[in-house]
Amino acid sequence: MMDPRFRQFxxxxxxxxxxxxxxxxxxxxxxxxxxxxxxxxxxxxxxxxMLIGLVGHMARRNPLCARFAADPAAQFLFTGPxxxxxxxxxxxxxxxxxxxxxxxxxxxxxxxxxxLTADALAQLVEACEQGRAWPWTVSELQERYTGxxxxxxxxxxxxxxxxxxxxxxxxxxxxxLGNLLESHPDAPLRAWMARMNGSRLA
Length: 202
Hints:
Layout: H1 11-20, E1 23-27, E2 37-40, E3 42-45, E4 51-59, H2 63-70, E5 73-85, H3 87-90, E6 98-112, H4 117-129, H5 144-150, E7 152-167, H6 174-183, H7 187-196, H8 198-201
Antiparallel strand pairs: 1-2, 1-5, 3-4, 4-7, 5-6, 6-7
């Protein structure tokens, strides 16, 4: 049975995982495996910071496009930081190796609508270009933009269920946790282990 501490997370953790790792597997339940695909997603949130929706776009020829037009049920699988953890990282040779990771499974109702396309694309570009010295904008495509826009379609998804697992050393004692935070070579994984064990590090 999974340690219940791995299932304890907050709205801010969900928001950061989606922002840091936006590429999600998108599935239409009951569809052939070939209909599953990877798509970058953005979250939408209510006034309390809770995830209420997802925004994205896909190629019109993507099999998911036709699937969601017929049946709006969808699953979104986000994989956050992950990596092998060796006894060497733990500083104990009698410690069993493991794999640390964070993941979200979201069920939602999808609405595909060409009226959403331009805004969905603009939001994704803005999010991905944020922080660059000279952020790129879609207007730089000039006349090519219209043609490219016609090949994709936007969608929004209303979240109906969210489940997460954040297995990030919450079950380790203080010594092992300190060793992992000092010696593990994966900086994003270290940062998330520190995040999910913040109260123990204070």
